[in-house]
Specification:
- The chain has about 70 residues and is mainly α.
- The chain has a domain at about 25-55.
- Helices cover about 50% and strands about 0% of the residues.
- It contains 4 helices and no strands.
- It has helices at about 1-10, 15-25, 35-40, 45-55.
- Helix 2 (about 15-25) runs antiparallel to helix 4.
- The longest helix has 12 residues, at about 15-25.
- The relative contact order is 0.14.
Length: about 70
């Protein structure tokens, strides 16, 4: 998932952004909506958007290592 995305982007490491971008695709099928939610046309993506808005992204500073 996130490791493959990082590799496609030319990185050998995963960033929090990689995980966030895949979160809905990975978690969508895990949600089991109640009959009430189904009757109200609540979309799983809407729930996941609300969850992801509340999860704070870590603030990281990446350092480049000196070339030998």
């Amino acid at each position: 998932g996130a490791r493959a995305l990082a590799l496609l982007r030319g990185r050998g490491y995963v960033l929090a952004q990689d995980v966030r971008e895949l979160a809905k695709d990975v978690l969508r099928h895990r949600l089991v909506l109640s009959y009430a939610a189904l009757a109200e046309d609540v979309a799983p993506d809407r729930i996941l958007d609300a969850v992801l808005e509340r999860v704070e992204m870590p603030h990281l500073e990446l350092r480049r290592e000196a070339s030998a």
